Amino acid sequence: MTDLGLYLAKKSINKAEVSRRTGISKSRLSQLSGNDTTKLRADELYLIALAIDANPCELLREICKDLKLLRV
Predict the structure, then answer these.
(1) Domains of the chain, each with CATH number or no CATH
(2) 3-state secondary structure the chain
(3) Start and end of every HTH cro/C1-type domain (predicted)?
(4) Which residue in 49, 69, 71, 72 has a CA-CA distance of 20 to 30 Å to 9?
């Protein structure tokens, strides 16, 4: 499960409702929630955040928490 999938599950978010509100297909949401190789686009993240009444920056921070800058 992806970080987005874990976030949505933790918040008990109904993906069918998110799909209806955002226009993102249920199959795309399933890919974004379950497949680590699927890339989440910025517009999708923004729409999902709006649909679940979350701050887009906080959602981004949560799902990208493992990203770190390289030390040079």
Answers:
(1) 3-63 (1.10.260.40)
(2) CCHHHHHHHHCCCCHHHHHHHHCCCHHHHHHHHHCCCCCCCHHHHHHHHHHCCCCHHHHHHHHCCCCCCCCC
(3) 7-61
(4) 69
